[in-house]
């Protein structure tokens, strides 16, 4: 089973994903086209903390999140064991600078052949998923699931939905052939 995740709306009125989160629409539409299982996650540190174990039966997991400052989609090679943000998650939690997992390593990497997949899908690679909920999800997945990766997409005005669906299809195809 292939699992694709996206995030639900979050943030202050007028923010990049307040009314709807572009990662949600992309995950739902790409998942439908690929016949994948889709999970829309709340933008919540608590909700994503165990995601790596929740999807343990999946053949592969591709998680998608929106990064407001980006203009192009990028695959996240690693995640750090740190959460910090002035912006609260949807539960109202503001991470003031703390480890995600007190016993975990400082950083973890995807097990995917990220260079092969990025080249095959026409993508760049990022070495920082930030320190917000996207990073916390990536950390859980990379630490506890052997076949997962995180895709950060730009706001909707910088990525057409059909182009995004094609991109997800290429990523999945490349990951299965690597």
TrEMBL record:
Organism in which the protein naturally occurs: Flaviflexus equikiangi
Source taxon at top rank: Bacteria
Record flagged with keyword Protease: yes
Phylogenetic classification of the source organism: Bacteria, Bacillati, Actinomycetota, Actinomycetes, Actinomycetales
InterPro entries attached to this UniProt entry: Peptidase_C15, Peptidase_C15-like, Peptidase_C15-like_sf
Protein name: Pyrrolidone-carboxylate peptidase
Family matches, as Gene3D superfamilies: Peptidase C15, pyroglutamyl peptidase I-like
Family per similarity comment: Belongs to the peptidase C15 family.
Keyword field: Cytoplasm, Hydrolase, Protease, Thiol protease
């Amino acid at each position: 089973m292939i699992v694709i995740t996206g995030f639900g709306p979050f943030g202050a009125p007028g923010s990049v994903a307040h009314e709807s989160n572009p990662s949600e629409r992309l995950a739902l539409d790409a998942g439908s086209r690929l016949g994948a299982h889709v999970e829309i996650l709340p933008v919540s540190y608590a909700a994503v903390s165990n995601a790596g174990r929740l999807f343990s039966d999946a053949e592969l997991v591709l998680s998608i999140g929106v990064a407001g400052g980006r203009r192009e989609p990028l695959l996240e090679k690693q995640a750090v064991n740190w959460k910090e943000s002035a912006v609260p998650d949807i539960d109202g939690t503001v991470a003031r600078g703390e480890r995600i997992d007190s016993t975990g390593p400082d950083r973890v990497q995807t097990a995917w052949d990220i260079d092969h997949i990025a080249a095959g899908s026409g993508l760049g690679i990022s070495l920082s998923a930030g320190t917000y909920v996207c990073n916390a999800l990536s950390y859980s997945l990379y630490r506890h699931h052997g076949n997962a990766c995180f895709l950060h997409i730009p706001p909707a005005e910088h990525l057409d939905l059909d182009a995004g669906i094609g991109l997800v299809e290429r990523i999945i195809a490349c990951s299965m052939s690597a």
